[in-house]
Amino acid sequence: MNIIQTALKARNWMKRNESFLPTWHAYVGYELDLFKTFKNPKTVDEVVAETGLSKELLQCWVDVGASIKHLRKRTGGRYRTSKHHCGEFLEDGSNSVGALLKEMMELHIPTLLAYPKYMKSNERAVFNHEKFGDVVAETSTLLEHFAIRRIKKMMKEHKVETVIDLGCGHGGYLRKLAKDFPEVQMLGVDVNERVVESARKASAGYDNIDYIVADASDWRPEEGEKADLILLHNVFHYLDPIARTELLSNLTTWLSDEGRISVITPVNETAQGQAFSTAFNSFFTAHSNLYALPSSEDIEELADASGLTLSDYNSIIKEGGWYAFWLMPQTVSDPEVEREPESRPLIASGKV
Fold first, then answer.
1. Alpha carbon distance 328, 334 (integer Å)
2. How many angstroms separate the CA atoms of 98 and 212, rounded?
3. What's the topology of domain 3-81?
4. CA atoms in the 13 A half-sphere facing the CB of 75
5. CA distance 230 to 262
6. Least confident window among 8-12, 33-37, 89-93, 238-242
7. Which domain of life is it from (predicted)?
């Protein structure tokens, strides 16, 4: 390959990197709360005086923001956050979009960049639950919103009285359900004590929600207690295949006769969102305490091995390979939640 061709190919790779700029810029702005700082038009000097940040580096960040339209330039050298492009960062309270950026920039990308080291050494990264527990809990709640309507529909139709959320995170999902079902008793279970404490504080006004610190993989309710609905959302990648079967077999012993287990999980080897799901699977596989994502075939085998029926298997985020489905005792027959033919995993053809 001659030097001209090499240079052209190098330029093409540079062009591809431009799509990363908005992500980097938004992450920095979220981390330093700069979008709120520039909510009203301000100069770089004014912000430096307020925050003590490096003027030179802040000016560079502002220049990038103006070029990609995250910031709008105003008269007198002032800049203002674009509500159209970055309005989500101006809202008060927790920010799931910001948490998603933080998870990607501080957790996913560093792990993927270390892939050569792991491949050569056969070593693995170690996922730090304490450091990233809050961020992962926030992003999981964001993803669960895509399935909340199906949960509420099921609770209403089947007159659910008890809900247990295993791996509940900050409890945001339970609080959303509790607003519509104040009479339903709800329990959140999470292994991270700090995350549970945050959930308790946020749920102080909800009399029907309780929380406990426990490992969802081996926790059991009080003797004789049954659950009508168990939420098992974004949990499988914390468990190896054997532990997944053991967990579901455990759940069947305290699931009510007409109960349901709601599962949300990213799935590997999907036709839709394959690029993301395979990269996501690479991230999990690079950790010694995280595990490869299940495939559609794995999920069917898992249900059978646990004595459960799989139904309503559907994609909820096509771009990311996230799926939601129900698991129920094999004795339950409910035509309303039977899997539609077009939703059934096409294992033989390798398509979903």
1. 10
2. 27
3. Arc Repressor Mutant, subunit A (1.10.10)
4. 0
5. 6
6. 89-93
7. Bacteria
**Are 324 and 316 a contacting pair, CB within 8 Å?**
yes
Residue 267: both structure tokens together = 């799935």
CA separation for the pair 165, 185 (Å, rounded):
11
CA–CA–CA angle 89, 93, 94 (5° rounding): 75
CA dihedral (263, 312, 141, 270) in degrees, to 10, reads 90
Q: What is the pTM of this model?
A: 0.83
183 to 35, 177, 196, 216, 262: CA distances (angstroms): 40, 11, 22, 24, 20
Q: Does domain 129-329 sit in CATH 3.40.50.150?
A: yes
Q: What are the tens digits of pLDDT across the range 40-72?
A: 999 999 999 999 999 999 999 999 999 999 999
Domain boundaries, the chain: 3-81, 129-329
Contact 177, 151 (CB under 8 A): yes
pLDDT of residue 343: 36
Phi, psi of 264 (to 5 degrees): -125, 130
Calpha distance 152→176 (Å, rounded)? 10
